[in-house]
Design brief:
509 residues, alpha/beta, seven-stranded mixed sheet, five-stranded parallel sheet, 14 helices, globular, binds nicotinamide-adenine-dinucleotide
């Protein structure tokens, strides 16, 4: 059963190599970067990190590929993305193996992450025939006013460890059909997953006869990311990660008048109203807060419960938390895998310590587990903490399974508490009262980019635009019209008459 054992690093290595082999992907051997598995906390292998010359060469190659790719009709560009989707379908289990080995996601969530990539490929293929511009009513006779969307240029993608491939696919599938080459700097924590994705995309390019240069992979740490940030050939820098990272990256891209798309930290809350269906709410809350070991940007971190149901919700959650199986993410039955690094466990401990000092009572979890079987790994029992109010620690994002439970009396107070944090990513209300639900979704309600009713904060579908406000950075990716960030808009006025009519009735000559 779950937690009964932790596989050996040797077994993990073999599993990873087998998956890479089935995908026909070669790992760039060398030094500079260590692939480590959070399952045991031990190294799997070392890889070659890119140096400054390689960063320059990759950006140059992508930049040179741009004119040809820009001139390729969008539906033809879509064929590359369709082929990528086919390869991801064929290698769903293999990519999921890498996600579990490197990010520590349980099997079902790792497969879900690959499914998300497949979904966004399908979306982007459809999009490749739908890059619509508007026709606008002109104020002048014999004139047509319209807008066209054109490819933007090289898109730099910097991604976080916790979605080692889905975030890449949101950006890349859409950017490619929009006519933009992509240079990807994945998290230094998940290099093997990125090598696999890059390998599959290069294979897709060979299969459909697309230029392979439209995708470049750069392995390395912050320095490699910073080189993309400062490179004027990178037209759009799409960066996913902590608010700290966004505060460094945003101003630097702005200083060269480049475009950035920032997807940063969250501090997501759910309101549980007295009318809530508690059976449904408790299941949704446990998945949102403890799923992915609390390491999603949309993980539920704050629960605002109406005073009338607070004790019952706390009791039910405590019971659910006590039974959560923590352990080997490859094992069937495990619901909570490891934290990514020992430093994440330390931050969780620190958060818990501060919560206690600020008047919190730990209802369940919080302790390290499996230290005997995996001394280098960071397994923790998800923590549930009842807080007397929204104290300093509650207003911060601690990237670990740490759920704070607070009470409220009226909806207005709950919404005020809800919005009184620096971040603005995802939010939810559990209620059967339609008025409450609509108020929460209205302009006076949640201030987040994602606002849900009767489902949790995490686990968005790709069809909607994904992102958040305030310290979350304001970017939108994936579905809806998020594609527009990857293109430039041209406004076209065509005079098909024989008179020269100036706008605003201006007369001249
Ligand atoms: P991180 O900020 O440490 O790193 C993210 C990426 O940015 C990495 O590739 C890293 O190398 C790079 N980076 C860091 N500093 C940089 C700099 N100064 N210049 C250029 N690149 C730099 O984040 P992480 O620990 O990998 O991920 C967890 C964080 O990401 C959490 O805060 C989480 O909420 C956030 N996140 C947000 C979203 C979203 O869509 N909003 C999605 C996933 C994760």
């Amino acid at each position: 059963g779950a937690g009964a054992g932790i596989p050996t690093t040797e077994w993990l290595c073999e599993r990873v190599l087998a998956a890479l082999g089935r995908m026909g992907v070669e790992v760039p051997g060398g030094t500079g970067l260590t692939a480590l598995t959070p399952v045991t906390g031990e190294p799997l292998c070392t890889l070659l990190a890119a140096d400054a010359a390689e960063v320059d060469a990759a950006v140059a190659a992508a930049h040179e590929a741009f004119p040809g790719w820009r001139a390729t009709p969008p539906p033809r560009r879509g064929e590359l993305v369709r082929r990528l989707g086919d390869l991801l379908r064929a290698h769903k289990e293999d990519v999921a193996d890498l996600v579990t080995a490197e990010a520590g996601k349980i099997r079902s969530e790792a497969l879900g992450e690959v499914q998300e990539m497949i979904d966004v490929c399908d979306f982007a293929v459809g999009l490749s025939r739908q890059l619509y511009g508007r026709t606008i009513a002109s104020e002048r006779p014999g004139h047509r006013l319209a807008e066209s969307w054109h490819p933007l240029g090289v898109v730099g993608v910097v991604s976080a460890f916790n979605f080692p491939c889905a975030v890449w696919s949101w950006n890349t599938a859409v950017a490619l059909v929009c006519g933009d080459p992509v240079v990807w700097k994945p998290s230094e924590v998940t290099p093997l997953t990125s090598v696999a994705c890059h390998g599959l995309l290069r294979r897709a390019a060979r299969d459909v006869g697309a230029p392979p240069e439209v995708h470049q992979l750069l392995l390395g740490g912050r320095g490699v990311g910073a080189a993309l940030v400062d490179d004027p050939r990178v037209a759009l820098l799409s960066a996913t990660g902590s608010t700290r990272m966004g505060r460094e990256v945003g101003p630097r891209v702005a200083a060269r008048l480049g475009r950035s798309l920032l997807e940063l930290g969250g501090n997501n809350a759910a309101i549980v109203a007295p009318s809530a269906d508690l059976d449904l709410a408790v299941r949704a809350i446990v998945f949102a807060a403890a799923g992915t070991a609390g390491q999603r940007c949309t993980s539920l971190r704050r629960l605002l419960v109406h005073r009338d149901v607070a004790d019952e919700v706390a009791e039910r959650l405590t019971a659910a938390y006590r039974g959560l199986p923590v352990g080997d993410p490859f094992a069937e039955g495990t619901l909570v895998g490891p934290l990514i690094r020992m430093s994440a466990l330390e931050r969780m401990r620190d958060g818990l310590g501060r919560a206690r000092a600020e008047g919190g009572a730990v209802l369940a979890g919080g302790g390290r587990v499996l230290a005997d079987r995996a001394p280098e790994a960071a397994y923790a029992q998800p923590a549930l903490v009842r807080m007397p109010g929204q104290t300093a620690v509650v207003r911060e994002e601690t990237f670990a399974p740490l759920l704070y439970v607070l009470e409220y009396d009226g909806l207005e107070q709950a919404i005020a508490l809800h919005n009184d944090v620096p971040q603005g990513l995802s939010s939810a209300i559990f209620t059967r009262d339609q008025r409450e639900a609509e108020v929460f979704l209205s302009a006076e309600g949640s201030d987040c980019g994602i606002a849900n009713v009767n489902i949790g904060t995490s686990g968005a579908e790709i069809g909607g635009a994904f992102g958040g406000e305030k310290d979350t950075g304001g970017g939108r990716e994936s579905g809806s019209d998020a594609w527009r960030a990857y293109m430039r808009r041209a406004t076209n006025t065509v005079n098909y008459g024989s008179e020269l009519a100036l706008a605003q009735n201006v007369s001249f000559l």
